[in-house]
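Problem statement: downstream parser choked on a complex file, so we are re-checking the raw output for the adenosine-5'-triphosphate run. The parser issue turned out to be on our end (a line-ending mismatch), but while we're here, posting the original submission so the record is complete.
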Amino acid sequence: MTSKLLLVKYAEIHLKGQNRPYFQRLLLRNLRLAVKHLNANAILYDSRIFVTNYEDETACIDAITKVFGVHSVCPTVQIEKSNFDHICELAADIMKDVSGTFKVIARRADKRYFLDSPQICAKVGAHVLRNNPELRVDVHNPEHVLNVEIRDQALLYAKTYPAVGGLPTGTAGRAMLLLSGGIDSPVSGFRIAKRGVQLSAVYYHSFPYTGEPVKEKIISLAKILTAYCGAIRLFVVPFTEIQQAIHEKCPEDFTTLIMRRNMMRIADQLAEKNKALALITGESIGQVASQTLEALACTDEVVSRPVFRPLIGMDKLEIINEAKQINTYETSCLPYEDCCTVFTPRHPVTHPKLKQAQFAEQPLREDDLLEQMIARAIAGTEVIDFKPQ
Ligand code: ATP
Ligand code: MG
């Protein structure tokens, strides 16, 4: 009797010591959620993680390779280990359509097994060669590796699909991503989530200057991200009143910078309420006026928690390549303006001093106007929850 399973190899978790069961548990939970819609299950068996009970292997592999914490996936056949002839026949069957060079790697977790690893390699290798004249052995640089593991049962696998790597989502706390419709912010969210961070996201919606299609675009981006990052709670903050007030009351060349400061203030408050320990933006040095070192210092001044900018040293082309890899690029390129031209200054300040930014913001501070507008924006925030499929 043979059965097919997917062997899930984990990434950095193997470096963990006493915490390893905690990381394994969360990886297992995330895998179960990722393959649930395919009616498959993830189990911990004999110290390895397997996905079982699937019908659509390709779809299952696709879902697993997106789960943070997974290094690779191997379609595996499991067979009773006592009859070694059966193991050899299965090995020949797995390798029947393969040509070129190969070697067998045997691992014997069951040390009482009647053959040792070199003997398993030699016998299985010889049987495969006898049955497939297209194959030659190369132990140094083989094109194909047939793995034979003797554990509770024998496991055989020859194909490996690389996965996304990183650490299981949920092992590193929560952070709040400022998610715009552009190319950059989804990539930056992905990069931080990859290290085990659970994402929340905030989008500032200036209706009717930015229309419903922009909000739909943000929703699509959040959905794409959930395939990797797990559940995401999105906060859609009504931002029109604040943008109009900035436009009417503040010096034109400072309006973008002041807008950015207020996005950060609101994100900081939402983060506080939702137990997010850091903010994430898609900024990269010098990309636009509000991303010079001086401007970044002016935006950081208003927040009380760390701001992560994982794209800070990347070129636009590098960011685009990554956006393509994670499948957000096409959606990000949908041609809806994120910010109406009404609010874009002709000559934004590029090297602002903090004192100047604070002074330019003063008109908003009269009669607690800014505090009240921020409170209204937060009170009017729409919450949308996204879960993996
Ligand atoms: P992106 O390509 O991510 O849209 P951008 O090139 O448009 O970024 P900016 O407009 O300066 O750059 O925005 C810098 C960062 O601020 C974005 O990466 C994002 O994290 C955040 N941000 C900008 N606009 C919004 C918005 N409307 N809602 C939420 N976050 C925003
Ligand atoms: Mg950008």
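For whoever reads this later: DSSP finds 13 helices and 15 strands in the chain.
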